[in-house]
Amino acid sequence: MRIDTRKVRTDGKEKIRGENKYLEDLEFENLYYARTLRSEVSRAIIKEIIYPEMPENYHIVDKNDILRNEVKMIEVDMPIFAKDQVNYIGEPISLIVGQNKDVIIDIINHTKVIYEELPSVYSMEEAKANNVTIIEKENNEFTSHEFSIGDISSLNDCEIFDGIYETTYQEQLYMEKQGAVGDYKDGELIVYGSMQCPYYVKNALMHATGYNGLNTRVIQADTGGAFGGKEEYPSLMACQVAAATLKIKKPVRLIFDRREDIMYTTKRHPSKVFIKSYVEKNKIIGIDINVELDAGPYIGLSDVVLQRALFTLNGAYQIENAKVKGTVYATNNVFTGAFRGFGAPQTMFALEQHFNQVATKLKIDPFEFKKAHFVKQGQKTVTNGVYVEEIKLDEVADKLEKLSDYKNKMKLLDSEDYYYGIGVSFIPHGGGFTGDGEAEHIKAKVKLKKNKNNTVEILIANVEMGQGAKTALPKIVASVIDIDIEDVIYNNPDTKYVPDSGPTVASRTTMVVGRLLYKAAEKVKERFNEEEFIVEENFKAPDYLVWDPETFQGNAYMSYSWSGNVAEVLVDKITYDVTVKNIYGVYDIGYPIDIKLVEGQIHGGIIQGMGMGMMENMTSKNGKIEQNNFEAYSVPTIKDIPNMEFDLVINEYDDGPYGAKGVGELTLVGIPPAIASAIENAVNKEFFKVPVTPEYILEVKEYADRN
Amino acid sequence: MQIEIKFNLNGEDVSIITDPVRRLLDVLREDFKLTGVKEGCSEGECGACVVFINDILVNSCMVPMANVINKRVMSIEGFKKTKEFEVIEKGFLEAGAVQCGFCTPGMIMATENLLKNISNPSVEEIKEGLSGNICRCTGYQTIIEAVQLSVKEGGGLWKSNLTSL
Question: Is B163 exposed, middle or buried (0-12, 13-18, 19+ CB in 10 A)?
Answer without folding.
Answer: exposed
